Known about the structure:
Blueprint (H helix, E strand, L loop, with lengths): L6 H36 L5 H13 L3 E7 L6 E9 L2 E2 L4 E3 L13 E4 L12 H4 L4 E8 L5 E9 L6 H34 L3 E6 L5 E4 L1 H7 L3 H6 L2 H4 L8 H13 L4 E8 L5 E13 L2 E10 L1 H14 L2 H7 L3 E6 L4 E4 L1 H7 L3 H4 L10 H15 L4 E8 L5 E13 L2 E10 L4 H20 L3 E5 L5 E4 L1 H7 L3 H4 L10 H15 L4 E8 L5 E13 L2 E10 L1 H57 L3 H29 L6 E3 L1 H15 L4 E7 L6 E3 L1 H18 L4 E10 L17 E8 L6 H6 L17 H11 L3 E6 L5 E8 L10 H10 L6 E5 L3 H13 L3 E5 L2 H10 L6 E5 L7 H11 L5 E5 L4 H10 L3 E4 L4 H21 L1
Parallel strand pairs: 24-26, 30-31, 30-32, 32-33, 33-34
Antiparallel strand pairs: 1-2, 1-7, 2-3, 2-4, 5-6, 6-7, 8-9, 8-12, 10-11, 11-12, 13-14, 13-17, 15-16, 16-17, 18-19, 18-22, 20-21, 21-22, 23-25, 26-27, 27-29, 28-29
Helix pairs in contact: 1-2, 1-4, 1-18, 2-4, 4-18, 18-19, 18-24, 18-25, 20-21, 21-23, 26-27, 27-28
Amino acid sequence: MQPEKHPRATADLAERRQAKALESRLRTVLERTTAAALAASNAAPGRVLDDLAVAITEILGVACAVVGEFVDDSKTTMRTRAVRFDGRVLANFEYDVMSTACRHIVGRASRFLASGVRSEFAPDSIFYAEGIDSYAGYALSANDGRQVGVIVALDRKPIADQALTETILKILAARASAEIERERAEANYRAVFESAEDAILVLDWTSARILDANPKACATRGYTRDELLRLGIAELSANVPPYTMEQARKYFEAAKRSPHAVRFEWLRKNKDGTLHVDEVDLKAGQLGGHKCMFAFVREITERKRTEKALRDSEEMYREIFNASADAMVLRDADFRVVDVNPAYSSMSGYTRAETLGAHRVLTVTPEENLRWRSEHERMLKGEHLRFEFRARRKDGTPYEAELHGMPVTYDGRPHVLYVSRDITERKHAELALRVSEEQYRTIFNVSDDVMVVRDEAMLVVDANPAFFELQSATREEVIGVRYPLFVGEPNRAAAEALIRDALAGRPGKLEIQIRRKDGEVREFDVRAMPMVYRGRPHVLAIGRDLTVERGAERERRRLEVQLRQAQKMEAIGQLTGGIAHDFNNILGSIMGYNVLALERALDACDAKTAMYLEEALGSCRRARDLIQQMLTFSRGERGEPRRLSLRRLVEDTTPLLRSSLPPTIVFELDCEPTSPMVLVDEIQAGQVLLNLCINARDAMQGVGRLKLDVRELDTQGLVCASCHSPVLGRCVALSVADTGSGIEPAVQERMFEPFFSTKDKGKGSGMGLSMVHGIVHEHGGHVVVQSAPGRGSTFTVLWPAAEGAVDPLQGPAQVGALRARSRLSGRVLLVDDERAIRGFMQEMLGEWGLTVTAAADGGEALRAFDAAPLGFDLVISDQAMPTMTGLALTAQLRARQPELPIILCAGYTDEGIVAEAQRCGVQGLLHKPLEAAQLRAAVEAALSRQFEDVGHS
Length: 953
């Protein structure tokens, strides 16, 4: 006859089963979400979407996975980007969204159908024929919120666990969306880069080595793209004063510091040995997440020749000035006469000595002088004026003259040159024609817009200097000939039609690309207007250069891409924080019930069960630390340094590293058991270890031996590889050694620089070792590197040893201490919105002897308190609850009973929460998941203070 089971034993068995079930559930969730996160981060460049489809089928155990992208914004047609069915990779295809189960996910975040989806597929589709009956899908969204596709899991049998399935799809959907966005952005960048009219060079941030060059840059220099990428800036430079490489470095450093482009002139040497002068706009930017420099180059050789000719012509100024038949007067900004030529003295009758220094016009009335002063101010501002005036010579004889005033620079300061001619004899005959012709010529010549006049036969009748500069042609080459239209072949017919229409009396405009004589292509807005010249129909074509404006628009689009990248990283952080918060709640209930079960095992003197439960509790604590790392990452913050055993860090991290790195890498651990502790932030120390292991994995290309070593090390004679300072003091060394290819000396000099990487484009950010440098030196440590080509590498991180040794209190001792204490008494109001956490805390507090009233939210807690205002000695409340936070509840309870002790529990705290808790008079602020010993100590302290206050009242 079987003995009857004791009720307490049955309850213990049920609790253990419940704890095991919860632990199994958490393990499944952690394993699958971790696998999904690793699959998302380790997806190979070039086959990201295919790898994600494989991950869906393997992690969820489904028959089929599909990653699809909408063909256009109508979202009616889907193009598959990756399809995996029964372990096979299917060719991509397009399908009508409205005829499949995917139509229900358009405009929604997700859809889950455990069974019955087969009827939603067309009978002739593979999904119908293969008996697919379950469906789980998640939307792919761009950074601006637009839905760009879907990621789907399908199976013949029902898909179990909707929440876990959607969480995994959500993780993989974020990576798939980012990949699609990256492909679109890269395609847009390459199209703009390749079609740019300016020559563009992309330069390395540190060395100024050429990283990329567009077709224009290759064509103008006579090199192929591969040839340019092998050359340095020095090979393309004439390197003669003032265009020396030393000056180039100054421009390069100035551009790094400036938010705007740095413009300068440079002497370029082409492949054929010819020299050309370039105008360069050097602008700092980013490409593929790396800092770089963009050089926008325009050739100005012809302009420089023109400027030189102008300087040469200045030497002839005095001869021309003195020999001119026209009277010339040069006045400064104050209207003072600086110089006159002999022709002026002959025409006016005033000698040069009488005129120099005069602040008025000697040949006109005082009223006319006022007008001249006004016109003088206009000309100083850049206007050219031509007018006629009446004057009197020194002997009183009247005459009429034509005056042309123009702004000039003389002796480095603004002046106005007045050129006048006596027109008394021909005034009446030529007055009307002369005024019209001179006004036209002035506007025509000084305009920055390109102007050209053509007759009915398309012959060029006239053109302004801007036209000659654009076409790099002389007046003799253009005037009187059928000068061709320098436009690209696609625009030529439209340009000719525009001129024909204007000849017929119909004005029009057109945006076209105009090709200069030297081959440079520029964007222009061209307007053609009909006109009559010498009684015959002509066309005046005016072109405005839009090249700079279009370049600014391209720069705006580039900045928009950077903004979308920043928004994507923010979204990943928010996703990580949300997942970690949910895990924290699940883990809290597991740890609580584990502690309760451990207490019972200790009561029953079941040492083996107690050991099992303590091991499980230790795993929970490691999971808690991992969750804290996720929360810290999602908020961009760092933890606080504390005493840490590097040996324990390596031993705890090794299982995670083994599962993350390829099985072809052999691990070796050699940790000194008595090494001192160090004072570091555990999260950051873990980042250092992870980065060094990933660096070793890449150096070995996934095959080799990885050795981790922790020991106290004699630092005499050691020098830091990153800051080159000698290492002093007592240190604990964490070494990561690999059997890879080793590091070249030139690479060792730069490997700690941000964004420096020897990996192929898209396979590394260049931030791993720079992050190691920053974290280690922030904690007062150093990095020593031993490596040689072909002999592997050893990275040794030297952390300053912490004074003294502290053994952390272990779980059984804490629980034993709890069991050894006397029972408590008091009435507790417990508030938490998580049912599982509320349940284990109510059980634990009851085991300690407390009377507990539980509430699921702030409103229910207030109702319970108002029903018995003096019925509670202590309140324990969660902080993050719907409708009312723990701090808000504290404020209302304090208003009702100011002396009531309150303990606040929070999964994550920042300075704001801590300050507000202190202001509200919170008795204790505990971090979730709760440790039983911490909770017991806080409860005892709160109740002790409460009863002392009662005794004094």
